[in-house]
Design brief:
Number of helices: 16
Largest sheet: 9 strands, mixed
Distance between the termini: 88 Å
Strand order of the largest sheet: 6-5-4-7-8-14-11-10-9
Helix content: 40-55%
Number of strands: 16
Shape: globular
Structural class: alpha+beta
Strand content: 15-25%
């Protein structure tokens, strides 16, 4: 027994000696010979620093708007263990990971040495990735076969609370954006998976054919690129019919004066089910039709007409009524065409000689012309030129998908259960909305994507010092556009101070609506007058 205690004591002493040697190495000055000369380098184990030095300004924006506190106070996470992390630390860590552009929970470890960001957000610490996963599992638990019926019912009720919590916060994040004429863009994106997650099904996947995936049915506020809701489902539920109930619930939850002036979607939405539902809700829509046999017959019938109208950007169009097989009624359709005045080569497999290819050359001087075309269906009363511009504007929706998937980690944060995947998809959309408002306050003239706005409005070396109970963060910008960055920070602080000055007595929700209204006014001041005004979007 005594020999065992002696061995443990010896091991402990060896560990302590090793730690002392390590501390000496860390504290000593290192003489480094570089291409630019000799430098002395020293580790600062006691100092507090961050690579997100400008987070302090975003934290001030969150404090003035009350967005983070609203998210925190309504969170359905409840701990009973005294050793559990605080809910603020859980949500704060989640926020920092998403804001930093990370895609995996394991990447949270890269933030744990940040001594400034947690204090700026009122946190006590940045929790580990395992703690974050367990916390999200407590928020949105996944029912398992080993649980009894009562346990599964309780877990489903908790998952429903989590879904309602995030939906309410997404709705709160758009503030006054639905008070003026706006357009609802609907689309579905594929989230590629590389594991055996729940709901990982091999189905429609244009970028990674044969790879399992989830799909996210997404509803945007057009042009502003704000996410109204994001519904993550199994990979084989990519058809708009699987999001039909969610779209209906979303529209019905809006007051009559807050509903969109138009619902836009691609050819996947141009089906009887989607159109009939919107017509039942008396909601205007604009969809593209697939190139079916009935649509092609329509184009053939109308091609020789002489009353084609200019629709802008080289497009011409005309309208007619069409009732395809499976439709319950005739609907207004818009036929658009544009000549492609370029040299083309058409390739076709030869029927006469197997394995041979026939080439047909078309140049702009040849009698054969090449056209691109599209057929739209709508129940709105917009003029032809307006319809063409409205549908072309829908392309901006794809830019939003590109940004939120590739720059905000929407393609990541995957877990075995689909409940936490769905929760994270909405959380990424929520932080994305917050940051979008913040960036538009800084630069109301134009939108900046995350790969541009993060280096300008988040990145900076920040050192935190405390003296006489005064916390001071000293920032060192590494970006070349320091003057422009300081001007944008000035815009942000002016907006925050404006709200604090005129509405000190307002509650958090009212302050946020006032701040969002202020940002909207700044944005509209730079919007050029177009043939389709905001007020004209009345259907």
């Amino acid at each position: 027994m005594g020999e065992e205690e002696f061995d443990q004591s010896q091991t402990s002493q060896a560990c302590q000696d090793l730690l002392k040697q390590y501390e000496k190495v860390v504290d000593q000055t290192l003489r480094v010979k570089t291409l630019g000369g000799v430098y002395e380098v020293q580790w600062n184990a006691q100092g507090k620093a961050t690579a997100m030095g400008q987070l302090a300004f975003f934290a001030e924006f969150l404090e003035a708007s009350g967005l983070f506190e609203s998210w925190l106070q309504s969170c359905p996470l409840r701990y009973t263990s005294p050793n559990a992390p605080e809910v603020r630390d859980v949500l704060g860590t989640w926020l920092l990971g998403i804001l930093d552009g990370q895609e995996r929970y394991a990447h949270i470890g890269t933030l744990r040495g940040d001594g400034v960001s947690p204090e700026v957000l009122g946190m006590t610490k940045i929790i580990g990735d395992d703690s974050l996963r367990r916390a999200l599992q407590a928020i949105a638990p996944a029912p398992k076969a080993k649980h009894n019926a009562e346990q599964r019912a309780a877990q489903q009720a908790q998952a429903l609370k989590a879904e309602q919590w995030m939906q309410a916060q997404l709705r709160n994040s758009i503030a006054q954006a639905t008070k003026t004429g706006w357009i609802l863009d609907c689309d579905t994106t594929v989230k590629v998976l590389y594991g055996h997650q729940d709901g990982a099904v091999v189905s429609y996947n244009p970028h990674k054919p044969g790879r399992p995936s989830h799909v996210i049915h997404t509803y945007w506020i057009g042009n502003l690129r704000l996410v109204l809701d994001a519904q993550l489902q199994a990979g084989n539920r990519h058809s708009p019919s699987y999001g039909r109930a969610g779209l209906k619930a979303l529209i019905e939850s809006l007051a009559a004066d807050e509903r969109p002036q138009l619902v836009r979607g691609d050819c996947a939405f141009g089906s009887e089910g989607e159109m009939a539902q919107l017509e039942e809700l008396q909601q205007a829509y604009l969809f593209k039709l697939r190139q079916s046999a009935g649509v092609k017959q329509l184009i053939k019938r109308q091609w020789q007409r002489q009353d084609w109208s200019d629709m802008g950007q080289g497009w011409s169009g005309l309208e007619d009524e069409l009732r395809l097989s499976g439709w319950s009624r005739k609907r207004r359709v818009i036929i658009m065409r544009r000549e492609r005045k370029i040299d083309l080569v058409l390739e076709k497999k030869s029927k006469a000689q197997k394995g041979q290819i026939d080439l047909h050359f078309i140049d702009e001087n040849a009698p054969v012309k090449s056209w691109e075309y599209a057929v739209l269906v709508t129940n709105s009363k917009y003029e032809l030129a307006q319809v063409g511009q409205l549908y072309r504007d829908r392309a901006d929706c794809e830019n939003g998908f590109d940004e939120i998937k590739n720059q905000w980690g929407w393609g990541g944060y995957s877990t075995q259960d689909i409940e936490r995947c769905a929760l994270s998809a909405r959380a990424v959309a929520l932080i994305y909305n917050w940051w979008s408002w913040y960036v538009r306050l800084a630069n109301p003239k134009s939108r900046l994507e995350a790969k541009t706005s993060r280096p300008q409005l988040l990145s900076a070396v920040g050192h935190l010092t405390t003296h006489s109970r005064i916390n001071k963060i000293v920032l060192a910008l590494t970006h070349e556009a320091a003057t422009q960055i300081k001007a944008m920070i000035g815009n942000i602080r002016a907006g925050v101070e404006h709200i604090r000055g005129i509405a000190p007595q307002l509650k958090d929700a009212q302050r946020w609506h006032a701040l969002a209204g202020y940002i909207t006014e700044k944005i509209l001041a730079f919007v050029p007058h177009t043939p389709i005004s905001v007020a004209a979007a009345s259907g």
